[in-house]
Amino acid sequence: MSDTEPRVDTTHSDSKSTEAVLAVDVSGDLRFMLDQLPDGVIFMDEAWRITYANEQARRISRIRPEDLNSKSHWELYPATVGTEQERRYRRVMYERVIEEFEVYYEPFDVWIKLRALPIASGMAVYYQDVTELKRAQIEAASVTRRLEQVFDATSDAIAVLNREWRYTFLNQRAAKLLQPDGRELIGQTMWNMFPETVFPGSPFVENFFRTMNEGVSTVFEAYYPAPLNSHFQVECQPSPEGVVFFFRDITESKRAEKALRAEQAETERQRAELEAIYRTAPVGLILFEPKELRYLRINDRQTEMMGLSREEVLGRRVEEIVTSPIALENLRKVAAGGVVTDFTFETAFVGRPDETQAFNVNYSPVLDADGQVRAISVAALDVTKLRKAERALIQSEKLAAVGRLASSISHEINNPLEAVTNLLYLIATDEVLPPSLKPYVHAAQDELSRVSQIATQTLRFHRQSNKPTAVTPAQLVDAVLNLFAGRLSNSGIHVEASYSTATKIVCFENDIRQVLNNLIANAIDAMRTGGRLLARAHDAHHGGLEGVRILVADTGTGMSVETQRRLFEPFYTTKDLNGTGLGLWISKEIVDRHGGDLRVRSTQNGKMHGTVFSLFLPKEPPAVAASNSAPLKSPAVVKGEGLLR
C-alpha cells in the first residue's frame, strides 16, 4: 500500500468518531480533496464493513458516523442481498477484478452507477447518483416508444436517413411500403437499395440532396419504378441526424384522379354535345324562372323566331317579349305544378311586332328534390308555314274544284254554243233578213265567238298536256290577256301588247300560261286605280342558250326591297287572306324546270313607279334537247290550279 492510500485499522473500537475508528495515514488535504469529489467513495474491509465514506457517499448512501466500522454492508443495506450487486461485489472482493455496473436501490428509490475495484484492505467503490439521468433516459425511451406507436398508427410512411444516407428508422407503414420483399433496410444506404431512383433529373436525388445539404424542406411527387412500381407523395424535412421524409403511396389516388379526369372530360364532352344540341335544335327551347317568369336560357332557334338577340331576351319577363296573353297564362299554370302539352296558338314578338307566328308548344315543370318547381321548360315548334300550307291546300282544293267545275261547264257550254253558232249562221245567210238587222246578227256572232274562245281557254287551263309543244310568245300571252279582258276593262287598265318575234318555243304550254297568268294577275292587283299593262316579246340569249324573253310590266305601286328579296319564297304574300304566297314560288319552279329564268325589277319612286317581270324561255328546254321523247315533268302541285297566285 502506498503512503497516500488510507490505512484501515481492523481492530474493533466502540468509539463513534470517524477519526477514532480509522487509521488513515493521510494528510488532511487528501481527505478534503476526497470530500470535494462529485462521486461517492467508500472503502470496505474484508468483513464488508464500511471503513471510510467521503461526503458525497455519506449523502447518497445515507451513511451516519456510527455506521462506519460497525455493521456490514449487507446489514446496512439488506435489499442488496441476493442481487446482482452482491454477486459483483463478491467477485471484486474475492476474485480481485474490477466491476462497473448500474443498480437500482428500491428503498432509497435511487439509481447508482458504480465502479468497484479491489484494494489491499478489501475493496473500494466509486459511484454516483444517476437517478435523474436514468429517469430522463426512461422518460426518453417512453417518449420514443410513444412516438413510435404514433408513427406506426399514422397513415403516412416515415423514414429517417443519416448523413451517410443510411436508414436509421422506419415506421410500420414505411417498412411495409419499402420492404415488400422482406429485405432489411435499417443500416443500408438508400441509393444502394434503390438504384433505380438515380437517373438524370431524378426528383429523388434533387429534393433529397437539397434537404440534406441546404437544410430546406421539399415536397414532391414521383414514381418509384420496379420493384415498388408506385407513385409517392414525399415531404423531406431536415434534421440534425440527416433527413426525415414522410411519404404516402398515392398510386390508387393517381388512378382515381386519372379516372376522374377522364370522367370529367367525358362529362364535359357530353355537356358540350348537349349544349350544342340545345343551341342548334330546330325547335325553340326556353327555360323560365318560375316566380317572375323571366327567361333563364334560350336557344338559337328561339331567338331567330323572336327576331331578338340572346342578350336582349335573357332576364326579361315573358310579357315583355310575347304579345299574346295565352303564353303567360300557360306559364302560370305550369308554375303552379300543372303541365301543358301540344298547345297551339298564334302570337307576335316585340322583335317582329307586325309578323304573327303560329306555334305548337309544350310546357313542363322542372322539379327539385323536394318536388318544388325549380324552373319551367318550354319547347316551341314554329308551325306558321304548316298553317299556311294547310290554308293553301284548302285553297288549292277549292281552286281545283273550281277548275274542274269550269272545265265541266266549258265542255257543256260548247254543245249549245255550237248550235247557237249554226243558227246565227243560218239567220245571217237568210235572204229574207232585213238589212237593218244584219249588223246585230254579226255582232251576236262576234260575241258568241268570244264566249266560245273563253270556254276553250278555260278548258285548256285545266287539261294537263303529256308532252311539250311548240308555241309562239303571242299565242301564250294573248290567250291569257283574253281571259282577263273583262277585268282589265273594268279596272281601267290599258293593255299594250307587241311582239317582235314569231319564234316558237318548245314548252308545256299550260304551265307557261299559268306563269303568265300569275304575272298578269299580280300586275292587275298592283293597279287598283287603273294604269298601263305592257306585254313585250323578243328574241334573246341567256346562259349560252337561244330563246325568247317575255316582259310583263305595270305602272302599279311597286314593291319594297324586302318584298323583292322574299318574292319567290313559299307562302310569302302581301295580300293577307286574299293570297296564298304560292303563285310566284310555283312560277319560279316551272320556269326552272324549263331551263329558263325569271327576274323582277320594281320601284316605289313617286314619279316612276311600277314593276317589270322578265321571263326568258329557251327555244328548246335542256331536257327536251337531250331526248325529244322525254317530256318535262310538270309539277303535280299546280295541276288544275291555273288561277292560283
From TrEMBL:
Record keywords: ATP-binding, Coiled coil, Kinase, Nucleotide-binding, Phosphoprotein, Transferase, Two-component regulatory system
UniProt name for this protein: histidine kinase
Entry-linked CDD domains: HATPase, HisKA, PAS
All copies of domain Histidine kinase, residue ranges: 408-621
Domain PAC: 343-395
One Gene Ontology molecular-function label: phosphorelay sensor kinase activity
Domain PAS: 26-101, 143-200, 270-322
SUPFAM superfamilies: ATPase domain of HSP90 chaperone/DNA topoisomerase II/histidine kinase (SSF55874), Homodimeric domain of signal transducing histidine kinase (SSF47384), PYP-like sensor domain (PAS domain) (SSF55785)
Enzyme Commission no: 2.7.13.3
Transmembrane parts of this sequence: none
Top-rank lineage group of the source organism: Bacteria
Coiled coil: 250-277
